[in-house]
Structure formats: structure tokens, C-alpha cells
């Protein structure tokens, strides 16, 4: 094979062109390692940049007459009807001053028995939630799943036999130690909506 000799003055230009084709060109003053690190950092920063802000989670802040506050995270996706009822009543100040009329070894319960509110349909059958310590659920009549109105309870311990029998609409995320101190007749100072961190 006949090779055409390359004039000496063309050698740098040809070498530069071959380097470009190979994708190995590095801007003057920047080493290859620095270039790759800067490119990686740029990709990493882009990946970590949030595209949108998450909506704050909704919760309830229950201040107790005997001291302490209980923060409850709500489950609007899993119990929309129950959450809507409880938040509506809380905004009206319905629970302010109410007492815990039922206190057992495994739960505390509050709400009014006398009212003119329409019962809320039970949502327990579509849930996969368990009655563990801190879970918050709607109380109802013994033989009717669709009779919850204003009364709710907070679990003090695990009770598997209640799973699937009552609508759970939230859980205590702060202040469970105060729930364990509640006695029959203790009052709720206030129950209001709050945003969770």
C-alpha cells in the first residue's frame, strides 16, 4: 500500500483533528479528571433539584386540660369521609372542652353521644391498617358499620381483633405519653388543624 507522506508543518493540525474525533479534547488549563468531576457534579446537582414542592401533611393538634399536646397525622387518602368529618368539627371547635367519657386499658374515647349529624359510611373494608398503639379511629354502634358520627378513640396498645371492624383515620405522631395519662373525665382543651413537618 502506497502511503502519502505528510508534510512536517501539517502534523500538529492532523493530530488535533484526530484528537477531536476521538472525543479527547480538553479545554486548555483543565485536566481531564477535573473536567469529568465537574460534569458529574453538574449531573448530580440536576438530579437532586426538586421539580415541585410537596404539599404539607394535614394533622390535628389536641391540647389537653391536664397538660401536654397530642399531634395526630391524618389519612385523607385512606379514610376521606372520616377525615372530612373530624376536620370539619375541629374547625368548628366542636371538641373543645369535651371530656374523655371512656377510658380502658387499651384505648381512650371522646366525642358527643347527642347530636343531629348524619352518620359517616364505614371505610374499614378498603383499608389495610392495623390497630396498633397510637392509631386513631371512629367509634360506632356495635352492630352497624355505618353509624360513626363524632366519637373517636386513640389506641393505647395493639388489638388485632379490632382490625377491619372500625375505620382508622390517623395516628399519633407526637405526645403518646400524654395519652397514656388520660383518665375518665379529663377534658380536651382544644382540637385544631395543623400542618405536619
Given as residue ranges, the uncertain stretches (5+ residues, pLDDT < 50) are 16-50
Work out the number of β strands.
Answer: 8
Work out the radius of gyration: 32 Å
The figure for the number of domains is 2
User: How does the overall form come out from the CA principal axes?
Assistant: globular
Order of helices and strands: HHEEHEEEEEHE
Describe this structure in words.
The chain is of the alpha+beta class. The protein has 2 domains: 9-48, no CATH class; 57-196, Cyclophilin-like (Cyclophilin, Beta Barrel). The protein is 22% helix and 23% strand. Strands 3-4-6-5-7-2-1-8 form an 8-stranded antiparallel beta sheet. The longest helix has 17 residues, at 32-48. 24% of the residues are buried. Mean pLDDT is 83; it is low at 16-50.
Short description:
The protein has 197 residues and is α+β, with helices and mostly antiparallel strands. Helix content is 22%, strand content 23%.
Amino acid at each position: 500500500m502506497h502511503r502519502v507522506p505528510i508534510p512536517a508543518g501539517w502534523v500538529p493540525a492532523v493530530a488535533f483533528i484526530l484528537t477531536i474525533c476521538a472525543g479527547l479534547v480538553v479545554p486548555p488549563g483543565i485536566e481531564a479528571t477535573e473536567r469529568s468531576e465537574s460534569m458529574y457534579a453538574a449531573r448530580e446537582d440536576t438530579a437532586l433539584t426538586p421539580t415541585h414542592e410537596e404539599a404539607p401533611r394535614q394533622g390535628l393538634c389536641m391540647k389537653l386540660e391536664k397538660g401536654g399536646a397530642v399531634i395526630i397525622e391524618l389519612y385523607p387518602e385512606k379514610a376521606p369521609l372520616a377525615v372530612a368529618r373530624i376536620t370539619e368539627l375541629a374547625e368548628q371547635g366542636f371538641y373543645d372542652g369535651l371530656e374523655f367519657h371512656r377510658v380502658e386499658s387499651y384505648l381512650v374515647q371522646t366525642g358527643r353521644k347527642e347530636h343531629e349529624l348524619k352518620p359517616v359510611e364505614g371505610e374499614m373494608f378498603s383499608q389495610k391498617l392495623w390497630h396498633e398503639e397510637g392509631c386513631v379511629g371512629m367509634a360506632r354502634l356495635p352492630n352497624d358499620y355505618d353509624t360513626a358520627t363524632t366519637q373517636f378513640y386513640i389506641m393505647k396498645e395493639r388489638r388485632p381483633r379490632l382490625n377491619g371492624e372500625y375505620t382508622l383515620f390517623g395516628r399519633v405522631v407526637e405526645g403518646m405519653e400524654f395519652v397514656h395519662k388520660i383518665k375518665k373525665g379529663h377534658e380536651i382543651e382544644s382540637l385544631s388543624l395543623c400542618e405536619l413537618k
